[in-house]
Specification:
- This protein is of the alpha+beta class.
- It is built from 10 helices and 4 strands.
- Helix 5 (113-129) packs across helix 9.
- The longest helix is centred in the C-terminal third of the chain and has 22 residues, at 207-228.
Length: 253
């Protein structure tokens, strides 16, 4: 991942059209597979100063892929009138110093913390034991299974690193599905029963939280089926997946 910053100095009569031009040029960025995301910002104290931030998959992908690809011509046609207004255009590598502020709670915090996840999975596995489709899958499960799965999802949703430090992390979770031969019926039942249990134990029911939960359940259960099948992929060596609000991918750079 690489971040490109382009700093502009735009005179007052051109500012509205400059922003409109980048609004049109953004269509090309949005279509380019080398572009991760982008943002045009205007300085509050000095309205003539603009900064365009574009995250590219790599500097090589930007310079050799995007600039030589099918979307560059349309992009450049829109921004060409403002090339002379550029004060800086450079690529920056992201350092390990990164994080989030406290203005937006994590999914873990919004759900109600550790107690909420333990409540969810404690009740869920009580229902699993009575379910004709899922009970055979979890016959003979560890007595602490519900607690371990609660720790997993809590960490995935931004909570403490309990699962990765105490239960083997991503690789261990994937390994627990090897050879189980899960069926589509079982996968669908798992999703439905957990969603129903979330209602029963009163997890937040706002559309934003439930949309992310549903997104995770689809991803997680399909990955479980993949590892449980006859030709599973290699066990992952990646860190724990992390989920956030919106459509953020599970693995953040």
């Amino acid at each position: 991942m690489i971040v490109e910053y382009i700093r502009y100095r735009i005179a007052e009569p051109q500012r509205a059209e400059f922003e409109a031009a980048y609004g049109r040029a953004a269509l090309s960025l949005g279509a380019a597979e080398q572009c991760v995301d982008y943002e045009l910002a205007r300085c509050t104290e000095d309205p003539g100063a603009y900064v365009l931030r574009i995250r590219w998959t790599s500097a090589e992908d930007h310079l050799g892929g995007f600039r030589k690809g099918e979307h560059f011509a349309a992009f450049f046609a829109e921004v060409k009138p403002y090339v002379e207004a550029i004060e800086e255009m450079r690529h920056y590598e992201v350092t390990p110093v990164a994080g989030r502020g406290g203005s937006t709670p994590t999914l873990f915090e919004w759900a109600g913390g550790t107690a909420a996840f333990e409540r969810l999975f404690s009740r869920f596995y009580e229902r699993v034991d009575e379910d004709p489709v899922l009970a055979p899958v979890f016959a003979g499960k560890d007595p602490n299974h519900a607690e371990h799965v609660a720790a997993w999802l809590a960490e995935v949703f931004g909570g403490p690193a309990t699962y990765s430090t105490g239960h083997g992390g991503h690789r261990h979770m994937a390994s627990r599905h090897l050879g189980r031969g899960l069926t589509e019926e079982q996968r669908r039942r798992w999703v439905t029963l957990l969603s129903d249990t979330a209602d029963e134990v009163a997890l937040p029911d706002d559309p934003e939280f439930r949309a992310v939960l549903a997104y995770y359940l689809e991803w997680g259960t399909r990955m479980a089926m993949l590892y449980s099948g006859p030709n599973p992929p290699p066990l992952p060596e990646t860190p724990m997946p992390r989920w956030d609000w919106g459509i953020t991918p599970p693995y953040r750079g």
